[in-house]
Hints:
The chain is mostly helical and 477 residues long. It folds into three domains: 7-193, Up-down Bundle (Growth Hormone, Chain: A), CATH 1.20.1250; 205-262; 268-472, MFS general substrate transporter like domains (Growth Hormone, Chain: A). The protein contains 19 helices and no strands. It has helices at 13-31, 40-47, 51-68, 71-79, 81-100, 105-134, 139-167, 172-175, 177-191, 206-227, 235-258, 272-302, 307-312, 315-334, 337-355, 364-388, 398-429, 435-455, 457-460. Helix 1 runs antiparallel to helix 9, helix 6 packs across helix 17 (398-429) and helix 15 (337-355) runs antiparallel to helix 18. The longest helix has 32 residues, at 398-429.
Amino acid sequence: MTQAPPVSTEFDPALRKLVIVVVLGAIMTILDTTITSVAVNTLGAQFDTSLTAIQWVLTGYTLALSASIPLSGWAIVRFGPKTMWIASLLVFITGSVLCGMAWSIAALIMFRLLQGFGAGMVMPIGQTMLARAAGPARMGRVMSAVAVPAMLAPMLGPTVGGLILGHLSWRWMFFINIPLCAIAVIAAIALLPADPVRDRHAELDLLGLALLSPGLGALVYGAAQAGSGRSPADIRVIAGVLTGIVLLGCYVLHARRKGDAALVDIRLLRDRNFAAVNVMMFVYIGTLSGLTALLPLNFQTVDGDSPLRSGAMVAPLGLGAIVTTLITGKLSDKHSPRLLILTGLPVVLLGIFGLTRIGPGTSAFLVLALLFVIGLGHGMIMPAAMGVSYKTLRHSEIPSATTATNVGIRAGSSFGVAALLVLIQRNIAHRTPEADTFTHAFSQTYWWALAIGAVAILPALMLPRQRRPAMADAPRR
């Protein structure tokens, strides 16, 4: 478990195989976050149930996914990354089969929880395997390879879901996972190296789990309730967000006493590089997640677009990100990731500034161009940030670091979505429901997004100007 990663700088065949395995496994679990978003009416008619109940098909998956993330670091140490990777995919496949066979809305929600629980550990485990195998010299390239499906899958989800509903039964939204994930499992068995020596005495931090997983789940629940159109003063929104903040605060106090035996070792934040990246990612991902939740609402409210068209309008953001992601990874291995991040952030902010000027008369081409610009900046930031966050950590700290990063991203995303949706609801509530006043409300909210996103520059400035190698694998005091 403490053997140092290879020092090679070449993208060798073994590393390519690992990237292929991780991409195959991750893409469907990410796709399932959004694939059911276009099936709300279909499922409501199929099960003759309310919109509130159907929303749990979407929310339940995200909640379970968030709750299982904190387990991934301990599970890797206790059982090994290859074993847990295959096990997580099998849980996801099982949940997918059962979702496709669901006979009631209650059964579908329950099976979505199972599906989400397996999906939640897939990305952290995959990132851990890649970070360990790549080492500091190849970190940017492997993280950029994984970033492509992470950016592409959410964009494709509503489109794939719409195509399935147009030609097949809704059940194929879940059955489609089976052959693809089966290929990923077979590839993992054949291509992944055997697990290193496992720590069979690694104890699960039960109190930490009881605080961290429900805390993260409560935050996601509060954000989901705000996103479903509920008032910011709704008890479900307030209770979710406040409960999440309190539980996560209690976890921090617990983890400080527990040290490296905690579920997620918060002492990693003493590493200036790791702390700066994660604070930056918390703010930045919160801004971008809130923005992607706001944009379809803007297109439907002001322009009268259909849900499917409004979702497709956001596609250029993902396309722009893929363009720059494909080259950013290699650049971040050769040059300072700090430079790439500080170049990408202003590009994203420029695109958001453009959104503050759009209205009912704005051409669709200009809106698509602005989103493409935001995507270009996003593609510069993410691979560089994901890669640099591991570069100064010890090899044995990577599982806990990966868990911490994913927890921070999930929490930041929840805060960002809740914050911007609360702001837009407040802005709309103080105006008459006419197109121009709706436009002003969205414009004001985009200004807030611009201000929040600009804050991410401050922690990015704390990143080292030069690349630094990972430190020796010794206990962190």
